[in-house]
């Protein structure tokens, strides 16, 4: 099954509603369920309650000095580009929350490859708990024969290679999402070439599950989802393990990132060395890639489904310190430490079905800048 078909599987999200015991407000327009904006402008980070997912502080664009007159242009752009959900948080508080068409705030949506961020942080947690070390060979947790390579070549591939897209596995195979051994063959030595190869990434889920000797969803729920009040579920779709959740749950994960793995005093990921490596250039082959995180503000970048190196910043209109989860059909989770902003976009493809970054990123940030500057 091709990954481009996954978006059609959003109907699966209805089974996820039971993942959260609380329902969220139905839409931005339902003002009766939205808490009043706070004043004066708070500067400390706000963490929405874990027990009440419908409770979330807001703050007005007027109080922030943002240009509210330009919001209608942003909404028009989002609507004509097949957006379902859009959120902007400032210091954890909701400034903009908008749903389009029949999509509601308690509807679940596929993160697609934006969910790689979840797996990356969970890998760091597993390492912190001494279940694994990212310098370990992948074979230590998958066993010998997870590929069709000779064992000498197989042992050269590490968990870190999986996190950085530098396994050297053959990406010219018919299906780069395939995780069957016959799909996993040698092309380059590990750490010598960068290519966005999804199969080796997906196998990280089995690495974590085998290392922790627990179900992958259960470990994720215990370590990240429940402690920060997310809901949602990883669902096997073809070869891929796709996360489905509400837009607000994605926003919660964004807050966790901006606070470097800490949630309101509770340490979710305390290993700052890992966090910094995860959200900064992880290798010299693609400066715009960390541990499964996309990075802005670098001099060059590479894109999925391409061997080309491009000059310039990944998203020129966005702040240089932005890092992100970017998924098929323009699923976006942007985090900007310098501005204390989290931006979430869920929906259908804006134009082309691209696996991660797209022209939509730059166009969207042009409109955001007009509002916040």
TrEMBL record:
SUPFAM superfamilies in alphabetical order: beta-lactamase/transpeptidase-like
Endpoints of the signal sequence: none
Region (Disordered): 23-44
Ranges for domain Beta-lactamase-related: 85-320
Protein name: CubicO group peptidase, beta-lactamase class C family
Species assigned in the record: Maribacter litoralis
